[in-house]
Each structure stands twice: as structure tokens, then as C-alpha cells.
């Protein structure tokens, strides 16, 4: 999960740069198609490694329906994410996401997975959110929000939360994560065959390589790692990492941009986020389930 959200910071910056050349629809569909092809190729090349895992898969009509629903919800999430970044920028998009995503994910996890948010997750997420707003305190007054961009960011956040419900269900049936990634981006990838012919795309090798890396690594590679990481942890654990995105962005900027400096307030915000991650990683607490609570009440 740490690698996924670290890479996610790089993915957002790369997406913003590519959107200067291509439309959100082109970026969304083409990178999704590349993600499908890359994880499929990776699976086929190393097929023998998955032999034992494939024997444990529980395929059914329900699994196929869930894969289709996952593919559609992901298409909405990725497309509206790119629309939001294009219209209001990465930071305003993050601000909407850290508010809408944890709330929608917690509600969906309770209703669908019968997963009650543990005290540890609530405390860790709250601490991370404090660090988030402390880190961006000096930037908040300079931001401008457009209603269309905010709405797109909210739709993206809710769609991502919905898609995680399908992912958790598929993982519980031992479906190999690479197959889930391929299914996740399939619908959006197929749209590229309709979007590209209708778009005036000015191709260049530099932008083409950026699209390739974004699709293969930013989506195919990172989401595969994420699915392996989220298999055995509560879905709501993701809330803490969503609120911790400034830390990952700061690490990326400090590593690759030599002239980056942080103010005392920003450093304090990052330290608060680090504390939140330490809480969620080191504090041991077994979360209760909705079923257990109901039984206890009876």
C-alpha cells in the first residue's frame, strides 16, 4: 500500500502533464487499455507461477457480474478523476477526495462488507487529515474551485469506493489480482477504439512514452500491488493512506526535485501524517464486524 500511494503521487503529476497534450477521455481510455495489455502479458509470460493460485479461484456467474460492475465503476472513477485534475488541478482534487472518499468507503464497507470502522482506523484517519490540512495550510487560500471540477472529483471518489467493494469481494473468492486489474480497466480500455478515431490526436514519442509508462506502471503495476496489499486488511484502512497523500508527494518531490524546500508548518504536517501511519501500522486492534455487534446486542 505504501508503494501504491507513493507511486500514486507520481501518477497524478504525470497525468497533469499529459493532460496538457491530450483530452481526459483519450488519457483515461488509452492508459486503461495499456494497463489491461501489460498485466495480461505479465500473467501469460509467468503463467506457471500462478498454477497453484489458479486452482484456488472460485469462478461463478456472480464473479463475472462483479468483474463487469468493477470495470464500469472504474471507468467512471478514472475518467472523472482526469476531468477533475484537468479543471481544478491535483490539489483541489485531493481536497475533495480526502473528504468524500473516507465517508463513502466507510458507509459502503458497513453496508456491503458488514465492516465496522475500528477505533484505530478512525483515530489514524483523523490524525492524518489534521496533518493533511496543516501541510496545505498556506496553499488553501490560493485555490480556486469550479463546481464542475468539484462534482467530477466527488463522483470519482465515490466510484473508487464502490470499485473497492467489488475488489474485496473478488479477492475473497481467490481471484488472482492480475486478472482483477485486467477486468478493472477492460471497459475503459475498449472505449479507446471509439474515442481515438473521433479525436484529433497529435502524437509525439515523448507523450506516447508518457502514456505507456502511465498505463503500464501507474495503473497496471501499481494497482496489482495494491490488490495484493489490500487482500488481508480491512477496506477502511485505505482511508488513512488517502489522507496521507501529502507525505508521498513530498517524498517524491524531495527525491527528484533538488530545489524543493518545505516550511516549518509543512514539516509539522508531514510529521503528523507519519504519526498517523505509525498508529495504523503498529497499533494492534482487531476491528469488530457488523455481524458480531448484532449478535452481541441479541
Question: Would you mind describing this structure in some detail?
Answer:
The chain has 298 residues and is mainly alpha-helical. The chain is built from 15 helices and no strands. Helix 2 crosses helix 4 (61-88), helix 2 packs across helix 11 (205-230) and helix 4 (61-88) packs antiparallel against helix 8. The protein is globular, with a radius of gyration of 19 Å. The two termini are 37 Å apart.
Number of strands: 0
Largest sheet: none
Fraction of residues in helix: over 70%
Output the structural class. mainly alpha
Rg from alpha-carbon coordinates: 19 Å
How many separate helices?
Answer: 15
Summarize the structure.
The protein is mainly α and about 300 residues long. It has helices at about 1-20, 25-45, 50-55, 60-90, 90-115, 120-135, 135-140, 145-170, 175-190, 190-195, 205-230, 240-245, 245-255, 265-280, 290-295.
SSE blueprint:
Elements: H1 2-18, H2 24-45, H3 51-55, H4 61-88, H5 90-113, H6 119-135, H7 137-140, H8 147-172, H9 177-190, H10 192-195, H11 205-230, H12 238-243, H13 245-256, H14 264-282, H15 290-297
Helix pairs in contact: 1-11, 1-13, 2-4, 2-9, 2-11, 4-5, 4-8, 4-9, 5-8, 6-14, 9-11
Amino acid at each position: 500500500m505504501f508503494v501504491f500511494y507513493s507511486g500514486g503521487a507520481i501518477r497524478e503529476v504525470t497525468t497533469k502533464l499529459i493532460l496538457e497534450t491530450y483530452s481526459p477521455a483519450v488519457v483515461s481510455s488509452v492508459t486503461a487499455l495499456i494497463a489491461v495489455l501489460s498485466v495480461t502479458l505479465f500473467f501469460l509470460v509467468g503463467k506457471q507461477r500462478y498454477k497453484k493460485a489458479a486452482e484456488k479461484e472460485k469462478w461463478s456467474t456472480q464473479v463475472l457480474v462483479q468483474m463487469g460492475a468493477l470495470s464500469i465503476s472504474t471507468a467512471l472513477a478514472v475518467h472523472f478523476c482526469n476531468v477533475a485534475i484537468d479543471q481544478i488541478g491535483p490539489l483541489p482534487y485531493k481536497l475533495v477526495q480526502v473528504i468524500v472518499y473516507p465517508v463513502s468507503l466507510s458507509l459502503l464497507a458497513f453496508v456491503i462488507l458488514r465492516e465496522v470502522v475500528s477505533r484505530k482506523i478512525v483515530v489514524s484517519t483523523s490524525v492524518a487529515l489534521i496533518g493533511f490540512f496543516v501541510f496545505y495550510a498556506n496553499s488553501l487560500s490560493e485555490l480556486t474551485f469550479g463546481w464542475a471540477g468539484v462534482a467530477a472529483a466527488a463522483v470519482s471518489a465515490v466510484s473508487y469506493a464502490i470499485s473497492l467493494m467489488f475488489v474485496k469481494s473478488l479477492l475473497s473468492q481467490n481471484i488472482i489480482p492480475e486478472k482483477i486489474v485486467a477486468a478493472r480497466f477492460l471497459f475503459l480500455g475498449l472505449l479507446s477504439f471509439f474515442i481515438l478515431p473521433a479525436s484529433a490526436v497529435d502524437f509525439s514519442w515523448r507523450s506516447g512514452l508518457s502514456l505507456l509508462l502511465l498505463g503500464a506502471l501507474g495503473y497496471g503495476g501499481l494497482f496489482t500491488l495494491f490488490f495484493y496489499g489490500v487482500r488481508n486488511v480491512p477496506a477502511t484502512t485505505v482511508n488513512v493512506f488517502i489522507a496521507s497523500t501529502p507525505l508521498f508527494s513530498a517524498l517524491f518531490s524531495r527525491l527528484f526535485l533538488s530545489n524543493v524546500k518545505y516550511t516549518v508548518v509543512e514539516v509539522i504536517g508531514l510529521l503528523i501524517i507519519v504519526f498517523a501511519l505509525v498508529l495504523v501500522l503498529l497499533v494492534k486492534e482487531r476491528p469488530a464486524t457488523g455481524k458480531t455487534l448484532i449478535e452481541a446486542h441479541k
